[in-house]
């Protein structure tokens, strides 16, 4: 049985989540990456946490020295397990969407939404070109990173140096990125067949700031 979650310190739990997130993205984290993720200036502090987790049988190093989780104190089905998903901003054409300079924040997302072994990212939507599909201005969309998609799927594409979300439609001669909007100003975008998507939308998350009161003195 994995150790009880309550038996672990806050930083030990954070380290476990960082390791889980890295493994979820198909790589093993380094001690320096863990130190940076935990806000430590020195890798020594991260090493101390790793030694504690190894002594508890939670973390193990493989023969290649890579870290892996052998037990997960948050694997109980009544507890939500999360992975850190990058929120990306404006993305320049030709620049990898998950390049460090594009990442604005790391947001914990349930593994039931960001399912392994795929890589995911979040994009904040601007405008209402997809409001008929339930995607509104300010919403976050969770995207599974991939460079192909099926006809009719909602995709992320780089258009005019910005990430945009549209419905993909294919024909023998062209690719269409079709809006689903109540506003007639939004028109389909016509592209060549060599067009490549950046990812497929998996879920829509409401803007977390929309629930903030405009008048902080107004009673509940």
Keywords, please?
220 residues; alpha+beta; Arc Repressor Mutant, subunit A; Umud Fragment, subunit A; 2 domains; 9-stranded mixed β-sheet; two-stranded antiparallel ribbon; 3 helices
List the helices and strands and how they pair.
Blueprint lengths: L9 H15 L6 H8 L4 H13 L3 E3 L5 E3 L12 E7 L14 E8 L9 E5 L15 E6 L8 E6 L2 E9 L4 E4 L10 E3 L7 E7 L15
Parallel strand pairs: 3-5
Antiparallel strand pairs: 1-2, 3-4, 5-6, 6-11, 7-8, 7-11, 8-9, 9-10
How does this structure look, described?
By secondary structure, the chain is an alpha+beta fold. It has two domains: 5-69, Arc Repressor Mutant, subunit A (Orthogonal Bundle), CATH 1.10.10.10; 82-205, Umud Fragment, subunit A, CATH 2.10.109.10. It is built from three helices and eleven strands, in the order αααβββββββββββ. The chain has a nine-stranded mixed sheet, with helices on one face. Strands 1-2 form a two-stranded antiparallel ribbon. β8 (162-170) and β9 form a beta hairpin. α2 crosses α3 (43-55). The longest helix is centred in the first third of the chain and has 15 residues, at 10-24. The model is unreliable at 212-220 (pLDDT under 50).
CATH architecture of the largest domain: Ribbon
- Give the SSE order as H and E letters: HHHEEEEEEEEEEE
CATH superfamily of the largest domain: Umud Fragment, subunit A
Indicate the CATH topology of the largest domain. Umud Fragment, subunit A
Largest sheet: 9 strands, mixed
**Helix segment count?**
3
- Overall structural class, as computed from helix and strand content, comes to alpha+beta
Given the C-alpha coordinates, what overall shape results?
Answer: elongated
Please state the CA-atom Rg, rounded to the nearest Å.
21 Å
Distance from first to last alpha carbon: 44 Å
Low-confidence stretches: 212-220
CATH class of the largest domain: Mainly Beta
Secondary structure: number of strands: 11
As laid out across the biggest beta sheet, the strand order is 4-3-5-6-11-7-8-9-10
Instruction: Give average pLDDT, whole number.
Output: 81
Indicate the percent of residues in helices: 10-25%
């Amino acid at each position: 049985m994995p150790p009880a979650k309550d038996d672990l310190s806050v930083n030990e739990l954070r380290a476990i989540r960082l390791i889980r997130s890295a493994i979820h993205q198909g790589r093993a984290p380094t001690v320096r990456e863990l130190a940076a993720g935990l806000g430590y200036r020195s890798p020594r502090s991260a090493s101390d946490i790793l030694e504690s987790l190894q002594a508890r049988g939670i973390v193990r190093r493989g023969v290649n020295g890579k870290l892996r989780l052998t037990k997960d104190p948050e694997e109980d089905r009544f507890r939500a397990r999360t992975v850190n998903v990058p929120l990306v901003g404006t993305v320049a054409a030709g620049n990898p969407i998950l390049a460090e300079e594009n990442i604005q924040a790391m947001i914990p997302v349930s593994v039931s939404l960001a399912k392994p072994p795929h890589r995911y990212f979040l994009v904040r939507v601007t405008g209402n070109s997809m409001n008929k599909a339930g995607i509104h201005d300010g919403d976050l969309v969770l995207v599974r990173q991939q460079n192909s998609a099926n006809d009719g799927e909602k995709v992320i594409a780089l258009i005019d140096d910005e990430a945009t979300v549209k419905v993909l439609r294919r024909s023998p001669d062209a690719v269409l990125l079709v809006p689903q909007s109540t506003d007639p100003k939004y028109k389909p975008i016509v592209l060549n067949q060599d067009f490549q998507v950046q990812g497929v939308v998996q879920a829509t998350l409401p803007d977390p700031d929309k629930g903030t009161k405009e008048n902080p003195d107004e009673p509940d």
